[in-house]
Automatic annotation (TrEMBL):
InterPro entries: Metal_Hydrolase, Pept_M19. It comes from the Bacteria. This is Dipeptidase. Keywords: Signal. Residues 1-18 form the signal peptide. Pfam families: Peptidase_M19 (PF01244).
């Protein structure tokens, strides 16, 4: 998730769509469509819960060109499972992280209850597969907590989140918490850092292993990443990270880290945000930081007395306008990152973590979840086989989930692992 000071959902809208070249809107080939439709497609990071809670958005709403994800476009893109991000803004909700997280989880669960014929809550790898069986394929809805600060230094809260359906936790967001360093503020001298994980941070990883909760290392500092690899007994995931060798952003992973994830048996789910997959976009976007921050602060001051929904919508529009000032990269930029991870870590260790509904810009041709078949087609053009595509589109994540569940069963059967 990439956000301003206000809780802001960064949506894709008409100006960005106008940049899409004609080639990107061309029909998908029958061969690519057939391969795509035969796969179980899993996206490990969508930020739509903020829209559900703060905007009152309903997944069953008719597509209107706003946002990246709804049930109709999920069907069009053959999305099989999505991990809905439970992200708590660390400044606005200081002191009430668990409460805000519970509100977001409740928003997701309400959507499941509201649309029982089209989606189902998934709590296991078996549930994901079951949701896609039979004539009426349902969207398997899972939840992932984005940022370990949400547990407020309490393993009991971590366990409660798991009981309510959270199946991964990103150890940090862009903020360093009391037990793990983040890549987002690693160079900020005013922030107290730990050199990676603290002892409590290591306990968090161990408890996640015991519970069967996927350990997510997106957003963490490099030192935290390597500490995690020393502690975890289960494979890790990067729920929404790309390759630093191609785009020099601290949120991305170095080749050394990619190889470490492969050795661990984990999977890196590539992020779709333009600033993470294209260096030209990253530089141009970063060059506007000071001006964008000033404009955001002015907007906040002007509308500080408005209701939350109004401030949310205004923030959406402003953030979108800033992103639209920079030309979107071509689809090839995203494919290059998937291809790089597959070549460095291996095709068994790469997947998709779009960051849909949490980013300001996506590559040309990827305007919503309905456009996922374009990724399949582009990868086929690079020579990827049907079997390899099934792995990338969801099979690799499913394998890691199953192994995490196996490790959990083993640890729960060990008295010394009980708490």
């Amino acid at each position: 998730m990439n956000r301003s000071v206000l809780v802001s959902l960064l949506l894709l809208g008409a100006p960005a769509l106008a940049e899409t070249p004609a080639a990107a809107s061309a029909p998908i080939s029958a061969k690519a469509r057939a391969v795509h439709e035969s796969a179980l497609i899993i996206d490990t990071h969508v930020d739509t819960p903020l829209r559900m809670l703060d905007e009152g958005f309903d997944l069953g709403s008719q597509p209107n060109g706003v946002g990246h994800l709804d049930l109709a476009r999920a069907r069009a893109g053959n999305l099989g499972a999505a991990f809905f991000s439970i992200w708590v803004e660390p400044k606005e909700f200081a002191g009430q992280y668990p409460h805000r997280a519970l509100r977001l989880m409740d928003a997701v669960l309400q959507q499941v209850e509201r649309h029982p014929d089209e989606m189902v809550l998934a709590l296991s790898s078996k549930d994901i597969v079951a949701a896609r069986s039979g004539k009426q394929k349902k969207l398997a809805a899972l939840m992932g907590v984005e940022g370990g600060h949400a547990i407020q230094n309490d393993l009991g809260v971590l366990r409660d989140f798991y009981r309510l359906g959270a199946r991964y936790m990103t150890l940090t967001w862009s903020n360093t918490n009391e037990w793990a360093d983040s890549s987002g503020d690693i160079n900020d001298a005013k922030v107290k850092h730990h050199g990676g994980l603290t002892d409590f941070g290591r306990d968090v990883v161990r408890e996640m292993n015991r519970l069967g909760m996927l350990v997510d290392i997106s957003h963490v500092a490099d030192s935290t990443f390597f500490d995690v690899m020393k502690v975890t007994k289960a494979p890790v995931i990067a729920s929404h990270s790309s390759a630093r060798a191609l785009t020099d952003h601290p949120r991305n992973m170095t080749d050394e880290m990619l190889k470490a994830v492969a050795a661990n048996g984990g999977v890196v789910m590539v992020n779709f945000f333009s600033a993470f997959i294209d260096d030209d976009f990253r530089k141009a976007y970063a060059a506007m930081d000071a001006e964008r921050k000033a404009a955001t602060e002015k907007l906040e001051a002007q509308h500080k007395n408005e209701d939350a929904a109004t401030r949310f919508r205004l923030s959406q529009a402003a953030d979108f306008e800033w992103a639209a000032k920079v030309k979107r990269p071509p689809l090839e930029a995203l494919i290059n990152h998937i291809d790089h991870v597959a070549k460095v870590a291996g095709v068994d260790h790469v997947g998709l973590g779009s960051d849909f509904d949490g980013i300001t810009s996506t590559p040309a041709g990827i305007d919503s979840v309905a456009d996922l078949p374009r990724i399949t087609e582009a990868l086929m053009a690079r020579g990827y086989t049907r079997e390899q595509l099934h792995k990338i589109l969801g099979g690799n994540l499913l394998r890691v989930f199953r192994e995490t569940e196996r490790v959990s069963r083993e640890l729960r059967a060990t008295p010394s692992a009980q708490r």
